[in-house]
Design brief:
Shape: globular
Order of helices and strands: HHEHEHEHEHEHEHE
Structural class: alpha/beta
Number of helices: 8
Strand order of the largest sheet: 3-2-1-4-5-7-6
Distance between the termini: 34 Å
Radius of gyration: 17 Å
Number of strands: 7
Strand content: 15-25%
Length: about 250
């Protein structure tokens, strides 16, 4: 099998031991190890190379896609339902899925091949490092983060992806007026997301005047198995949308 998803075999600048510091003391994910089916092995070898982008400093996404178009990042795409739905809904956009889990990369690569999709690329690396080292400021039109791990246990809060430092980084990469869209079924995490938006002056909660500050459900987001599980458990689904404002100043990340 190829080294897809094994960060220790990829560009040394993007491994957990040698990547330039993102300012985080703990990662927001734990790569899942497990046996892959023959179909997934085949997808990784035959199809994934057509979509995977090797980590590099200041990637030229217009060149990688062969066109100039709005650039959307789908972070933590899991099994790919959101990325595939977004690709179909936004053929005008260049879409980059970011995730570290090999199984999802295999599944998405297979579907992209079967569907003949041409507006999606994949990056197997930590979202912090991708945004910090691969993305130039003011290049992203949108960032989607659907149902990132809520790390619900005591002592795990520091592992949650959505925190002020991360949203400040996201804001610096968004064009003025660009949006970060988030969703979760874990209310304590939703409350933390809301506080994190408020703590970043470069972001504005588009629905701050709405009840609780929550946004309506994003119609492009498919109803995934994960979301359905939350609904069956009686948990409220919370959406948030924040817009990047002007005069972003984030030092030492360009």
């Amino acid at each position: 099998m190829s080294g897809v998803g094994d960060l220790s075999k990829r560009d040394p600048k993007f491994t957990s031991r040698t990547a330039p510091s993102t300012g985080r003391s703990a990662r927001s994910f734990i790569p899942r190890a497990g046996r892959l089916s023959g179909t997934k092995h085949y997808a990784l070898e035959a199809f994934a190379p057509n979509y995977l982008v090797e980590p590099s400093q200041q990637a030229d996404f217009d060149q990688l896609f062969g066109r100039v178009a709005p650039l959307i990042f789908d972070i933590g795409f899991g099994m790919g339902e959101s990325t595939l739905a977004l690709a179909a809904a936004r053929p005008d956009a260049n879409i980059v899925g970011v995730d570290v889990h090999v199984s999802g990369i295999a599944i998405v690569s297979d579907r992209l091949h079967l569907d003949g999709t041409t507006n999606v690329k994949l990056i197997a690396a930590d979202a912090h490092e991708v945004l910090m080292w691969m993305c130039a400021p003011r290049t992203l039109s949108e960032v989607h983060i659907w149902f990132s791990d809520p790390w619900p246990k005591h002592g795990q809060v520091g592992r949650r992806l959505i925190q002020p430092d991360f949203l400040e980084l996201v804001a610096s990469r968004l064009v003025v007026g660009g949006r970060v869209r988030m969703a979760t079924d874990w209310q304590p995490y939703a409350d933390q997301m809301l506080r994190s938006i408020s703590a970043v002056p470069q972001l504005n909660n588009e629905f701050s005047s709405a009840d609780g500050g929550w946004a309506p459900r994003d119609l492009v987001r498919p109803l995934t198995g994960y979301e359905q599980k939350g609904i069956r458990a009686g948990r409220a689904i919370r959406d948030l949308v924040a817009t990047a404002l002007g005069d972003v100043t984030l030092e030492d990340v360009t």
